[in-house]
Amino acid sequence: MKLTSIFTILTAAVLSTAAGPPAKTPKIPGISYLYTVNITAGETYPVGNGPHGLRLVVPITGGTFAGPKLRGTVMPVGGEWGTLDTGHANGSFYPDVRQTFKTDDGAYIQIFESGASQTDGSAHVSLKFDTGSEKYYWLNRAVGFGILNRLTDTSLTIDAFIVNPPA
Hints:
- By secondary structure, the protein is mostly beta strands.
- The chain starts with a helix and ends with a strand.
- Helices cover 10% and strands 56% of the residues.
- Strands 1-3-4-6-7-8-9-10 form an 8-stranded antiparallel β-barrel.
- Residues 1-19 form the signal peptide.
């Protein structure tokens, strides 16, 4: 009986809090353009079906990137380990990319991307950065996203942006 009473009190407290004053509209963060990367890729290797669809592995062979705060080359390491959803008629693609940038001033930045294809043929990806460079260390804390567009079977671009605090 005591357990029922405690449960009743807690439920009433939660419901009264949920019915409180309306929440303020949150401030919307801004975005800043970071760079555009042009990636060249090698041959696609369909490595087989797995629990999430057909895994496609594509090595990165190089490329370039440029933006207002950084520019350089894409190192010929890394690649894409995307998954094609073969279980549904829409055939959604889920990119999973690892790439390494070398900036014009010699710093290395690793980028990890994952996301989902869109109905317009692009893919929206989240970006995570990893660098030990003091100059670019701010990227380790950045929340990034990008729009990936496949140009040919062996080339693609990603327009990258970062989220800024609300004004």
